[in-house]
Amino acid sequence: MIQNLKSVLIGFNQEERARPSALHYGFSLARQADAHVSIAALSPELTVTHAFISEVATTLVEEENRRLKGIASELAEQARQDGQAQGVSCTAEAIHRSYPVLATEFAKRARVHDLTIFDAHPDALSFNRGVIEETLFNSGRPLILVPPSFDTFKISTAIIAWDGSAKAAKAVADALPLLKMTQKVEIVCISREKDLSASVPGAELAPNPTRHEIDCTVTELTAHNGDAGEALRSHASHIRADLIVMGAFVHSRLRQFVLGGVTHTMLNNSPVPVLLSY
């Protein structure tokens, strides 16, 4: 059983595929952890931005918002029933707000949970990507992004993407309850990607997981043509990893469109679920 993981938030967008991977992956994880799940069905509210829009158009927008809110409520309730049928303690709600408020509201809920789970999304300009980034940067809690078709939580082999940074260290600490379930953990360090002279080498990290009774090894990879993300992605596929643990990286305090190269690559196209911390 997963220790110290008792409260899981799962979010999904009603416009996504009919069977969100995050939902079923989250149920599987919660069942193994004996954790409570809070479900949030996210529904962006249509807004009237033009001061001179007609009354007819305003009425149509209001009617559409009522319809969207109703759908989100139905999906939230269905998800709750699905979770309970799988033996998971669940509560559910529909959050129907304008886009900026919706992302903020979800991030606020994430702050009071041990872990948040959401579907991975490759489009940097999408609604889902905005929710992911807001949650990652403003919740203070770890976030697992689940690629399509990952409906069952398992963690036989995990990768720690280690660059020696404070964010990577936070990700390792956040992931410890999950890493203790593994049979094998690889601490992966990637050279030729950036200056690591001020960082803590992977070999110096290794004793910490070992003291937590986690079997780990250190692997060094080379970022061919400077693409560390692709090196990490390929290695995860090669060893059939079940989870990648990494700290999120940005190039500046202006978050829009400045996600670091490895983070950007893994958000776009990770072969396995990714646990991110910031």
Automatic annotation (TrEMBL):
Q: Which organism is it from?
A: Microvirga terrestris
**Pfam families hit by this protein:** Usp
Q: Where are the transmembrane segments?
A: none
Q: By its UniProt entry, which Gene3D superfamilies does this protein fall under?
A: 3.40.50.12370
Name this polypeptide is given: Universal stress protein
The text of the family note is: Belongs to the universal stress protein A family.
SUPFAM superfamilies reported in the protein's UniProt record: Adenine nucleotide alpha hydrolases-like
Q: For the UspA domain, which residue ranges apply?
A: 159-276
